[in-house]
Every structure is written in structure tokens, then in C-alpha cells.
Design goal:
alpha/beta; five-stranded mixed β-sheet; four-stranded parallel β-sheet; 15 helices; about 40% helix; about 15% strand
Length: about 400
């Protein structure tokens, strides 16, 4: 051990976290009981230090971002989640459903930027036909053939397979043929049945979400995974959620990034709840990094966290800050006050100010550019795994 890790371990012992600290330094898996101890500790600085040790073991000083854009193709939704501020019924003020042509126009509007990914998620509406989903993926690829289409949460895929009236495996083949490259991680919320009943009972439950993700991974598609925190869930329910993600990852190795999503209380049925503090958000980043030992990346999603908290999170376990985004409705409708879009140069500056080395990646973590040209000269693609240190 180095003097630095010795010092962190000594602080962990002083805080009553010595056994956990020793596991972290040895690279051993933490138990559910360990995770609960981390939720209940007042030694938040020690938690951050332990998570940072793991983060730097995996990624050194590298911090990833991408040049992407979001397209929320419809806000029609019949799930009526208590936490949601985005959903509308057709005919309501602000309701919309983009045509495939409009999706293509949004992609073409960013052709002057070096965008490598379009992130497409939306509400769920049963009257949208199956062909529509294929068409919006095709429209994105036609507008920008080289773009990576990351689209459709497990909740959306559940609706797509229902309206397709085909085996899910066949649906995934057809979506891939249309141009789907990977799937995001949203819609997981909290897997606990209690929270599902109270907050989003019309949405697929935790077991169904995991089963769909398993099928997506088996079809050869990588996905992200998430947890929505800061509402009515308990620490025990959060740990259960993380452990179930970890267990599926042991089986499929299909998750590439974990993203803790902060509940925003404005304009929804849970507006009476306070929502998480910045310290709560940092704790979630750190615990996610420590518990999810088999998921390579942890993202500090700046849209939800704010830029200063995302910068701090790069020393609390996170190694990714997402991307340029361009246009995002789901969290801004819930009160997010972050910008709708940032420039690539701003992301590079924020990461540098946080003391990390900016690395522009594509969706699958191939390196597009790095500020450290020894790692990846401009235009040279290389697997991120080959560049990690420690």
C-alpha cells in the first residue's frame, strides 16, 4: 500500500469502516450489510475517498464525455408515474409526438457539430404503431449514417414488443437492422415492490425490467443501468436495487455504465418531497462505485446534478459526465435548471478544472480524442480499456 492508501484506511478505521476499507483496498466484493453501513455513516468524506480509490484504480485521472444529442420523441404516456413531470395525454397542452421526419430534422440540425450519438427516449403510448419505432431509428441513421443510435429504455421496449406482436428476440433483430446500436438505462427507478406499487404501478416491475435487460444483453446490445433516488425509497431498497444490478451483470456483462438519477420534485405528484441534496447525490455516486464492482463506468449526469456537483463527483467515484445533450425535456420539465446544451469545449474545461484528463468517447467507450495526446491523438479510436491506469 502507498502512504495515501494507508492514510485512507486509517481514516476508515477511525470512522468505524475499517473492515470495509480493507475489502475495498483488496478488491473484494462488498456485501449488502457493507452497503447499508455506507448509507448510514456520517463519515461522508471517508466514503468519498474509498470510492475515489476504486475510481482511480479503474480509470486513473481519465474522465469521459461524448458529443451527443437527445431526442425525446414523444411525451404521450399512460404510465402516470408519481415522480414524472414529462408525461402528457394526447390533446393536453404541451403534448407532442414527433414524426420520423421531424426526428431526422433534429439530427440534421446538428450536422455542423461532431455528434457521435443520439439518445432517444420518451413516454409510452399504446396507439403508436410498431413501424414508427423502426422508422425513427431509420430516420436518425438516414440523417447521419455514422451516428450511434442509443434508444428505448426497457419500459419502452416492453411496449414495442407488445405492439409488434412478435417474439422479443425478433423485435430486437429488427430494431438492430433499422440501426439501433445500444439501449439507455432508464425506467428502472427502484426495483422494490413497495415503491413500485406506490409510485409507478402501471410500469413494468423490477423483475420484468431485469428480464428485458437480460434479453437485450443476450442479443448483443450493451445498455446502461440506473437508479432513481431521493424520493420514498429506503437505504435497504437502494442496496437491494444495486445488488440486483450487480447480479445480472455477473450473468451477462452487458451493462457498461451506471447512472444514479436524482429525483426532481417540481411539477409532479411527489412535489411535497424535498428531493436529494448535493451531499445525497455524492453519496449515491460513491456507493454505486463501491457496490457495483463489475460495472466499468459510473456517470455523473450533469443535467441532473448541476455542473459543480458533477465536477465534485469526479473525485467521488464517477469517471463520466455524459455529453453535450443539445435538447432535453424529461428532467427540465421536472425543474432541472441546468443548461439544455453545452459545448464540447465547456465539457473539456469543466473536466480539466476538476483535475481530471478529458477523454472524448463514443457510445461504446472507444476513444475519439483526449487532451493527453499520448493516450489518443485527435481522430484516433482506441478502446478505453487499453488506456486505463492503475
Amino acid at each position: 500500500m502507498t502512504d495515501r492508501t494507508d492514510a485512507v484506511l486509517e481514516r476508515a478505521r477511525t470512522a468505524g469502516l475499517g473492515a470495509i476499507g480493507e475489502k475495498v483496498l483488496a478488491g473484494e466484493r462488498l456485501t449488502r450489510a457493507d452497503g447499508l453501513a455506507l448509507y448510514h455513516t456520517d463519515a461522508i468524506h471517508v466514503l468519498g475517498e474509498l470510492a475515489n480509490l476504486v475510481r482511480e484504480r479503474l480509470h486513473g485521472d481519465l474522465a469521459y464525455f461524448n458529443v451527443n444529442q437527445h431526442v425525446n420523441y414523444t411525451n404521450y404516456c399512460n404510465k402516470f408515474c408519481q415522480f414524472c413531470s414529462f408525461d402528457r395525454l394526447p390533446g393536453q397542452e404541451g403534448a407532442y409526438c414527433l414524426t420520423p421526419e421531424q426526428v431526422g430534422e433534429k439530427i440534421r440540425a446538428q450536422l455542423h457539430e461532431p455528434v457521435t450519438e443520439v439518445h432517444m427516449v420518451a413516454g409510452v403510448w399504446p396507439k403508436i404503431p410498431y413501424e414508427y419505432y423502426l422508422d425513427i431509428v431509420r430516420a436518425a441513421k438516414e440523417a447521419r449514417p455514422e451516428i450511434h443510435v442509443k434508444a428505448f429504455t426497457m419500459v419502452e421496449l416492453d411496449q414495442i414488443r407488445k405492439v409488434a406482436k412478435k417474439p422479443f428476440e425478433e423485435v430486437l433483430v429488427e430494431l438492430r437492422e433499422a440501426g439501433l446500436g445500444s439501449c439507455p438505462g432508464g425506467g428502472a427507478e427502484i426495483f422494490a415492490d413497495r415503491v413500485h406499487r406506490e409510485g409507478y404501478s402501471m410500469k413494468i416491475d423490477g423483475n420484468e425490467w431485469l428480464d428485458l435487460a437480460r434479453s437485450v444483453h443476450r442479443a448483443g446490445l450493451r445498455t446502461n443501468c440506473t437508479m432513481l433516488h431521493g424520493h420514498i425509497e429506503t437505504p435497504e431498497e437502494r442496496i437491494d436495487h444495486l445488488d440486483r444490478l450487480r447480479t445480472l451483470q455477473d450473468e451477462t456483462n452487458g451493462f457498461q455504465t451506471y447512472i444514479p438519477l436524482s429525483f426532481h420534485p417540481e411539477n409532479n405528484e411527489w412535489s411535497h418531497l424535498p428531493g436529494p441534496t448535493a451531499l445525497d447525490e455524492l453519496r449515491e455516486i460513491a456507493i454505486g462505485r463501491l457496490m457495483l464492482d463489475n460495472i466499468p463506468h459510473v456517470k455523473a449526469y450533469w443535467i441532473m446534478l448541476s455542473i459543480p456537483v458533477a465536477q465534485l463527483a469526479l473525485s467521488w467515484g464517477a469517471d463520466d459526465v455524459d455529453g453535450t445533450v443539445v435538447e432535453e425535456h424529461i428532467y427540465h420539465d421536472a425543474g432541472a435548471e441546468t443548461p439544455q446544451q453545452v459545448m464540447r469545449e465547456e465539457l473539456v474545461q469543466w473536466i480539466t478544472e476538476a483535475g481530471r484528463i478529458p477523454v472524448e468517447r463514443d457510445t461504446l467507450y472507444n476513444v475519439v480524442w483526449s487532451s493527453d495526446e499520448v493516450l489518443a491523438p485527435v481522430g484516433q479510436k482506441a478502446p478505453v480499456a487499453a488506456l486505463t491506469r492503475g
